[in-house]
Design goal:
Length: 163
C-alpha cells in the first residue's frame, strides 16, 4: 500500500462531530481561513482520491466508476503541481471534446476548481483553439490537451518530471 499524507482534519472527520463543535471550529478559524478550507482538496478528498505521497511513482491509475471523483482528483493534482512550479502538464483524454467538456469546463474541471485565492498562480482562461490552459501571468506554465488521435504529438519532453 502506498503511503498517504497525514492530514490534520478532513470533511469526513467533521461529519462525525456535533453541529455545535463544528460551528465553534469554523468560528475559531475565521472567515478567511474558512473560505480557504472550502477550496482545500486535502480537506475534502477521501484518502483514495489523493495522489501517492511518496515520489517513487510515475503512473497514478484510478480504476473507479462514475461519481468516484476521478476528474476532480486529477484536476486537483494538476492544480497542486502548477502551484508548486511545474511548468508543463499534459491533459490526455479520448477526444479534444472530452477534455474541454469534462476536464476544463466540467463541474470538476479546471475552470470550476480554480478560485480567486489561486490567482495569479492559476488561471481561469481556456484557449480552445490551441488547447491550452494558461497560467495567470503565463511564465511558461501551461496545461496542454492531447487526444488519442494526437498521440504522436505527446512526447516525454512535454510531461514534467516531478523528482
Amino acid at each position: 500500500m502506498t503511503a498517504r499524507r497525514q492530514r490534520k482534519i478532513t470533511a469526513e472527520a467533521l461529519r462525525g462531530l456535533e453541529p455545535a463543535k463544528v460551528k465553534k471550529l469554523f468560528d475559531e478559524l475565521g472567515p478567511i481561513k474558512t473560505e480557504e478550507l472550502k477550496h482545500d482538496w486535502n480537506f475534502w478528498a477521501r484518502d483514495n482520491q489523493l495522489a501517492p505521497e511518496d515520489k517513487d511513482w510515475n503512473t497514478w491509475f484510478i480504476n473507479a466508476g462514475r461519481g468516484f471523483g476521478k476528474t476532480r482528483s486529477g484536476v486537483e493534482w494538476v492544480r497542486e503541481n502548477v502551484k508548486n512550479g511545474v511548468k508543463r502538464i499534459a491533459a490526455v483524454a479520448s477526444t479534444n471534446s472530452d477534455i474541454e467538456r469534462v476536464m476544463v469546463k466540467g463541474e470538476s474541471g479546471f475552470l470550476s476548481v480554480c478560485w480567486k485565492g489561486d490567482r495569479p498562480t492559476l488561471v481561469r482562461r481556456w484557449a480552445s483553439l490551441n488547447g491550452r490552459l494558461l497560467r495567470g501571468h503565463s511564465l511558461g506554465r501551461m496545461v496542454r490537451r492531447y487526444s488519442s488521435s494526437q498521440q504522436r504529438n505527446l512526447s516525454v519532453s512535454v510531461v514534467p518530471s516531478l523528482n
